[in-house]
């Protein structure tokens, strides 16, 4: 047992060092850049902290902060309300199309926001599909304003609130509601005074996820910028790095405020729940079973279909229609596949190169991330390492911190002259993209693998060690065969997420090394909507095909194991 503890400590320190290098060090670099500007480029001078106050004096900085706060709060309120309402309806009632709703929620979660935003731009722009095909000319003025952008973001982010609340509704204790009804409470009173307060942790968690994902979103402002100027903190950070001269001071200060907003959101959640207890489940708890509504079931079906037509049909349908529409389709020239033919034409080699680069980076990042995530999960599940909680928190930090901030930190860390002397000058090479992608996928991989490891008893590994099996023998002969399914799904999820990471790619892609998200976004910025849509669907379809083939390849091995 002492030997197991010693080995667990060694693995724990190794994991802690890797996570510090990949996640914490870049975030510390952003803060240090504010306190000591230029320190990463050989200039040792104390920073002017009044720079942080310039956000209230410089128009662009102030507008960016204000827009991020407005967009974050507005989206959080409406997405939480919609997600909670839909989750309760889904948990309580059976209706046709419910499975389609579940499928749509996951599609919205895994689809990059810039693809969803591009679909809305194609639909609602002045000469877009809504105006040309449906005659909705006023939709343009509604969507491309702060309220309209909140609506678009709400329809993209509500799945985060939906999933957290829906999972909390898996179990119920009817005696609480029954006691309230026996005391004369109406259905509304029971929900308001009992059910809703007990869901407060889930509602707060969903709201926090929505807020963090919204204020750190780079895809929507990057796509909307082609039609409507709405600077946010992530987009202004990106602009600071692509102006002449490069404004590292501006990027650092705005990144500081972006992290501050996320920290405030987490603090609000903790404050809301610190004085109450919500552990109400007991032995009388039963699994929630949705029931058929006594009346009005048809309205649930119709409402669900209309809702799906908006949240899925508009962004994805717009991409599909624009991809098969001619360059002058708005003038009624019909449908064509010219954009798909142009994808791999000789003059458009950038797309093919970008696609290959993105697939290569995603594959390497998934393999490395799977190795790191496995070690993190092992330490969290089986070791007695005293800093396990710290590792758990760090592994979740990159999920909360926007990719644009992480990318800034990587520039500060890996763009230093002295690193060239030891061969570690990673800035300007594909390796910095790989490291940043690994940092981004670690939370996803860790959560999936931890769930699988929790089902494997520690006694199996202890018994093997007592027989003289080494660490790697225990892992390869016992643990890996039992969790290989989870490892595969974690790796495929990491692969798919890395391919379309626009924030990391836009900040860190090397010169003459285009990636698929950058190619698509540049085509969209050049108003080549049909080409961008075709590239999006082609790239996404190829990624889905790769994931499906990988899943099929392991099915025979599963059958052999079962037999």
UniProtKB/TrEMBL annotation:
The UniProt entry, under SUPFAM superfamilies, shows: MetI-like
Q: Which organism is it from?
A: Paenibacillus glycanilyticus
Query: Cell membrane: present as a keyword of the record?
Result: yes
Q: InterPro entries attached here?
A: MetI-like, MetI-like_sf
Name by which UniProt lists this protein: ABC transporter permease
The similarity annotation says: Belongs to the binding-protein-dependent transport system permease family.
- Print the keywords alphabetically: Cell inner membrane, Cell membrane, Membrane, Transmembrane, Transmembrane helix, Transport
Membrane topology, from the record: Multi-pass membrane protein
Query: Could you tell me which residue ranges the ABC transmembrane type-1 domain spans?
Result: 65-269, 355-555
Localization recorded for this chain is: Cell inner membrane; Cell membrane
Gene3D superfamilies (UniProt xref):
MetI-like
Where would you find the membrane-spanning parts of this chain?
12-40, 60-88, 100-123, 143-169, 190-212, 254-273, 297-317, 361-381, 393-413, 425-450, 486-509, 529-554
The major lineage groups are:
Bacteria, Bacillati, Bacillota, Bacilli, Bacillales
């Amino acid at each position: 047992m002492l030997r197991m503890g010693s080995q667990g400590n060694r693995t724990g320190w190794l994991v802690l060092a890797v996570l510090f290098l990949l996640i914490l060090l870049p975030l510390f670099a952003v803060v240090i850049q504010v306190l000591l500007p230029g320190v990463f480029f050989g200039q040792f001078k104390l920073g002017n902290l009044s720079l942080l106050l310039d956000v209230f004096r410089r128009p662009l900085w102030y507008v960016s902060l204000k827009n991020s706060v407005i967009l974050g709060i507005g989206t959080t309120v409406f997405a939480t309300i919609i997600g909670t309402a839909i989750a309760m309806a889904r948990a309580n009632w059976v209706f046709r199309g419910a499975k389609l709703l579940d499928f749509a929620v996951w599609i919205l979660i895994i689809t990059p926001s810039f693809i969803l935003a591009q679909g809305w731009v194609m639909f609602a722009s002045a000469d877009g599909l809504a105006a040309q095909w449906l005659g909705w000319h006023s939709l343009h003025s509604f969507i491309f304003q702060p309220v309209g952008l909140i609506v678009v973001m709400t329809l993209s982010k509500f799945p985060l609130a939906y999933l957290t609340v829906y999972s909390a509704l898996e179990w119920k204790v009817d005696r609480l509601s029954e006691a309230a009804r026996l005391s004369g409470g109406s259905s509304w009173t029971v929900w308001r005074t009992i059910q809703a307060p007990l869901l407060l942790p889930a509602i707060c968690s969903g709201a926090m996820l929505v807020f963090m994902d919204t204020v750190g979103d780079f895809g929507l402002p990057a796509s909307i910028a082609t039609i409507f100027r709405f600077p946010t903190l992530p987009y202004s950070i990106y602009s600071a790095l692509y102006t002449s001269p490069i404004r590292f001071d501006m990027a650092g200060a705005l990144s500081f405020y972006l992290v501050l907003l996320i920290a405030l959101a987490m603090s609000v959640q903790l404050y809301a729940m610190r004085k109450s207890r919500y552990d109400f489940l007991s032995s009388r708890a039963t699994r929630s079973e949705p029931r058929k509504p006594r009346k009005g079931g048809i309205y649930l079906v119709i409402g669900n279909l209309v809702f799906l037509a908006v949240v899925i049909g508009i962004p994805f349908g717009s991409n599909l229609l624009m991809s098969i529409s001619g360059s002058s389709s708005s003038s009624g020239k019909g449908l064509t596949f010219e954009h798909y033919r142009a994808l791999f034409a000789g003059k458009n080699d950038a797309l093919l190169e970008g696609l290959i680069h993105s697939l290569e980076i995603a594959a390497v990042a998934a393999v490395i991330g799977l190795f790191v995530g496995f070690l993190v999960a092992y330490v969290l599940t089986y070791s007695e390492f005293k800093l396990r909680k710290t590792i758990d928190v760090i592994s979740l930090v990159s999920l909360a911190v926007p990719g644009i901030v992480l990318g800034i930190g990587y520039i500060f860390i890996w763009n230093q002259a002295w690193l060239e002397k030891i061969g570690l000058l990673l800035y300007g090479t594909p390796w910095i993209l790989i490291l940043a992608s690994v940092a981004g996928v670690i939370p996803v991989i860790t959560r999936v693998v931890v769930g699988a490891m929790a089902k494997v008893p520690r006694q199996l590994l202890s018994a093997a060690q007592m027989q003289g099996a080494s660490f790697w023998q225990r892992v390869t002969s016992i643990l890996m065969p039992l969790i290989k399914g989870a490892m595969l799904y974690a790796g495929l999820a990491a692969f798919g997420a890395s391919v379309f990471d626009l924030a990391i790619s836009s900040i860190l892609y090397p010169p003459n090394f285009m990636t698929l998200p950058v190619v698509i976004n540049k085509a969209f910025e050049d108003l080549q909507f049909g080409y961008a849509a075709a590239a999006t669907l082609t790239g996404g379809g190829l990624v889905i095909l790769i994931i499906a083939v990988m899943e099929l390849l392991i099915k025979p091995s599963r059958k052999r194991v079962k037999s």
